[in-house]
Amino acid sequence: MALMTGEQYIESIRKMKMQVYMFGKKVEHPVDDPILRPSLNSVRMTYDLAQMPEYQDLMTAKSPYTGGIVNRFTHLHQSTEDLIKKVKMQRLLGQKTAACFQRCVGMDAFNSVFSTTYEVDKKYGTHYHENFKKFLVECQEKDLTVDGAMTDPKGDRSLSPSQQEDPDLYLRVVERRPDGIVVRGAKAHQTGMLNSHEVIVMPTIAMRPEDKDYAVSFAVPLDSPGLFMIIGRQSCDTRKCEGSEMDVGNSEFGGVEALTIFDDVFVPNERIFLNGETEFAGMMVERFAGYHRQSYGGCKVGVGDVLIGAAALAAEYNGAAKASHIKDKLIEMTHLNETLFSCGIACSAEGSKTEAGNYIIDLLLANVCKQNVTRFPYEIVRLGEDIAGGLMVTAPSEADLRDEKLGPYVDKYLKGVGVVSTENRLRILRLIENLSLGTAAVGYRTESMHGAGSPQAQRIMIARQSNLAHKKELAKAIAHIKD
Ligand code: SF4
Ligand code: FE
Questions:
Q1: 186, 257, 361, 452: which could join 292 in a potential S-S bond, CB 3.0 to 4.6 Å?
Q2: Which CATH number goes with the domain that contains 299?
Q3: 144 in a domain, yes or no?
Q4: What domain range is 160 assigned to?
Q5: Pocket of ligand 1, candidates 102, 146, 435, 450: which has the most ligand atoms within 8 Å of its Cβ, to mutate?
Q6: Which of 280, 301, 331 marks a domain boundary?
Q7: Which of 252, 248, 249 has the alpha carbon at shortest distance from 239?
Q8: Do residue 258 and residue 327 come from a single domain?
Q9: What pLDDT score was predicted for residue 122?
Q10: CB-based contact 146:106 (threshold 8 Å)
Q11: How many whole angstroms separate alpha carbon 275 and alpha carbon 269?
């Protein structure tokens, strides 16, 4: 089975015995939980679209490892064209879900772990690359969703992993056995975790020799003994339990985050991709972060497309669409959104081949891409709220609109232009609310800031890649300065 249908994917997750906790209780059926289900639907879209002939060029690729057609989310980029298609696929999914569809993290982990393990093996004669290739082929053949877990809790940021008062604040190896290792720690902010079959764990920072036990990478199934998730709260999350599809704004899709605990989880030898080679931790982090910073030039742009469309509709429903300042604000939103896309495409087009053979983005441009993502969606949201008007946060509920006594008043006084129903006007405002303040704001706003690394992480990479010495030489040449 090279490609699963969306339904097969849902059933495959249902069969897994994952340990998921929310509001202090174990969730017995995460797949059917009203708060969790929309995030599963978002991942499902990565399967559904791959089945549709019109999207197959973007959604699928030929794998040199299986020889067959695989979902692009399990593919290793074979060219800059593949890198560009990846970004376009992510924009498409952002447009279809208006949420985080989660599966990119695994794709970005595949591509960074593949090239890094090749270079580790070359230096140390280890077998991580072979381990990884076997794992990859399994994921491609079974069309698995794989999460990539990087962010450790990190405790006191001024201390290295091994200097922390509590040694578990970075995930580490606590026991080495002949058949594998036992790991302990946690990974924070994991969006796709509970909708994934497997997780690839990676270190979160560059490490020194004393951090040996922390320089570890591996893959395990999400229902491994000792692994459990505590779901994070989102603004307006319990609206999903109230029975009003309209008040949620985007009732079908979403994303939820989990603090994922590895409470002495066993990893067999064949699933280990790094184990103590500290100098390669930084390489793995840099590459994964680079790929994921490229990703944001696709997914956030797709969600931005939905928000711009919603703002334009809100203006139309208000009778304000022809006002010149509204037109100008929509132009500005579009300009900002397309600038992000340009960055995603540019870092892909300027990509290059790694020693292992897959393609990697231009790291400077990928970091510039994500740095812009930490800013522009905020301005896009600001303009969206400006156009929407205050009603997006003061409107009565759907229950009021449907109420026998109150409904006629809500309908009468909240109507905009004559041809548009009050209900439709409220629906579009709820969508803007969802994207800017509600559950999707986690994925569109705050994740734009902190996902794939906070702004300062990109500035460090930009500084490292900027080649200032070369620029100084250029200036000297023009100014006829001879030292
Ligand atoms: Fe994919 Fe974007 Fe979600 Fe990252 S934030 S997993 S790139 S949709
Ligand atoms: Fe993300």
A1: 452
A2: 1.20.140.10
A3: yes
A4: 6-280
A5: 102
A6: 280
A7: 248
A8: no
A9: 98
A10: yes
A11: 10
